[in-house]
Records
---
Amino acid sequence: MTMWSDSETQIDSGFLRLDLRMAKEVQKAFIPQNPLIPGLECETFYRPAHGVSGDYYDLFQVSSGKWGIAIGDVSGKGIGAALVMVKLQASVRAQAQPSHSDPAIAMKRVNQLIYESAPIHFYASLFYAEYDPVTRTLTYVNAGQNPPIVIRCEDGRSKVFRLEPDGIPVGLFENSNYRSANFQLQAGDILVACTDGIMEMEDQEGKQWGQQRLEDMFSICDRRTPGHVVRSILREVSAFARGRAPQDDMTLIVLQVDL
């Protein structure tokens, strides 16, 4: 029987820490840093719970001149989820570039790619939308992701619209089909999208922060920037948790249509 010495164990642990640190840096490079999207002001927040993350978001221009907006959450945690996350981002970008008439076609192909390449116990909830800066139209598919919300102040009253899921997470079944929907954005509208790490943050009694608390934050019409919205959400979640450490990755995208 081979016995490992303490020095060999320390060396292996050191290499593991180095690998994790490098993996974190590589993954960080895949995350866009508030790109400039015509007609939109953008603010994001991204925090892995354990070094590397299964969360994913992306903002990029597609070949049609529209802009792709994606946010997703790979099942599980750790290196495995992080590797699937990288595959998910690459798949979404690749399938968004052809001149599809409908993002649902891209989502169907992404589902097939994740199903074929990821281990059987991995799948991902995913919201993918294409924004047209000319018409301010958002065409989206929601595959099991927490519903992003659009906040609109109209006639002094605040309205909240949910972009509900209408499909199952990608990678669960080989031949899943998806449908897209259109949402007509207006000047001043704010789009908020986040992952489970924010929605399912727990307090000391194990209660979750949840969708309703997020929406209640926008019950009053007032002038807010995306940066202010991000800071307000993080402040509310932190106060709710009362010092409890996050157990899941946290990702948040806030976009506002220019006035």
---
Amino acid sequence: MTVKQIIDEPMRSLTDWSKEKRQKRIFELVDEVGLGREHLQRAPHEFSGGQQQRVAIARALSVNPQFVVADEPTSALDVSVQADILNLMRRLQDEYNLTYLFISHDLSVVRHISDRIAVMYLGEFAEVAPTDALFETPKHPYTRALLSSIPRADSETMDDRILLQGNVPSPENPPSGCRFHPRCQEYIGDVCETENPELVETAEDHLCACHLHDEM
């Protein structure tokens, strides 16, 4: 499919817009994402990774959504290209009043793009909080281990890195009780093995699923 066909496909499937209205929308979108109309007749393999992501963003916005799921949208891109795509997404978010569910393992990217973060372990929420609160006062042991692994320029500050032992269990056969307990350095005994902690509010708008949440 050409870029034009790729952007047009959701509109053809999900709207009753005329061909002329869809054509106008396609022209608007390629301008919005920083591509030219000369790109419309090209195929995806003719583009760089960053340009391909711009096409994907245009396609996602074609039917005027309110909610967009972005699953690792920058993971395959160079750092400089990542910044361009993230800045584009933020601009479009403001322009179209969008809500993003942004899924990523890159904590620096997550901090840059997110207003609120949910940390997951083996398919369950470990911690949910506003971005600044999560980075400044992480409550869950897994969150603290993740944040301690972020590379820093000052090598001396890596002395506090938390190195988790063991391997991640299979999601098909998770541990009983707290799913993190086999690797947790703050393990407190039977309660961790037998009871799955509830996600509770430990501070204003800050949720944590840990039996030690009161102490933390």
